[in-house]
Amino acid sequence: MVYERTLSLMSAEEKANYDRPYAVERINKITNKTIRYRYTLPYESWMTDARLDMQRDECGCGETLLMKVEPVADKVTLEYIPEPYTVVPNMAFIRPIVEEIKRRDIQVESFLDFEVNKVDIRPEYMNNPQELAKIRRMIDDLKSDPSIDVKSLDIIGYASPEGSLANNKRLSEGRAMALRDYLVSRYDFRRNQYQTIFGGENWDGLVKVLEAGDMDYRNEVLAIIDNYPLETERKAKLK
Q1: pTM: predicted TM-score of the whole model, two decimal places
Q2: Count of other CB atoms within 10 angstroms of residue 189
């Protein structure tokens, strides 16, 4: 047979890699035998409109009368049709919680100068013109925005650390109320919209001044403030 001659001319490596498109069974007597056959080959574009036939040669002698061709499939169907990979993103949308009323806090820090043990504001005294202008500018911006409704104005007064806490509290509260009266005379907010609050002794402000300056014993004073958390002990050590 051509098949056997082809195999005999192959090397051992060629035989190992040879993928046979057909099967040969040697049968010497009449028998009812099932031949299991499976062959796989890559899909090519010409196969789209092809049909599949099976040819059976019962004697191997080459006589066409003893050969039979049986149709297997009129159309080739693929077990898996590859499709190009397409990225389909899943969009996630989180609906934000609706604020019926948007509430915002706007702050401005101002350092007003007062005479010793006095609580009245002198608009032209020392650096007060610039500091008061800073406060007015913040309020003017609020009033010029029609979408903003001012509910309250909190005036937090801080005291310098020197002196007794009681006297510092009195001065701080009096000076906060002086600023309130100053603003009441210039704006149409109701008096009860103002809240005056005592913020305590302003140690943080003192630290900022010390760090920015070059006074004598600067580092020693900063060390005392840092190492003595209680204000009474801190003041005693500073003295």
Answers
A1: 0.51
A2: 16
